[in-house]
């Protein structure tokens, strides 16, 4: 799969998510109250990346994310 195609696919998956409304609900429910780095928005995007790459384990996902940096 071409690198640009993957980014386009990811953009298509993320674009329907209303980040403004999601942020309001997260603040209202205090979901990110004690979080410092892994916010709800980042977690959703991380799960979408894992789905697109079809990772079979957390270790595989972690290795792939570290390698790309």
From TrEMBL:
Q: Per UniProt, what is one Pfam family of this protein?
A: DUF4372
Q: What are the residue boundaries of the DUF4372 domain, all occurrences included? A: 8-65
Which protein, by its recorded name, is this?
DUF4372 domain-containing protein
The source organism is Aeribacillus alveayuensis
């Amino acid at each position: 799969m071409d690198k640009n195609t993957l980014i386009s696919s990811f953009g298509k998956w993320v674009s329907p998510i209303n980040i403004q409304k999601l942020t309001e609900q997260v603040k209202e429910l205090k979901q990110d109250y004690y979080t410092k780095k892994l916010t709800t928005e980042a977690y959703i995007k991380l799960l979408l990346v894992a789905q697109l790459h079809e990772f079979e384990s957390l270790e595989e996902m972690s290795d792939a994310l570290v390698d790309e940096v």
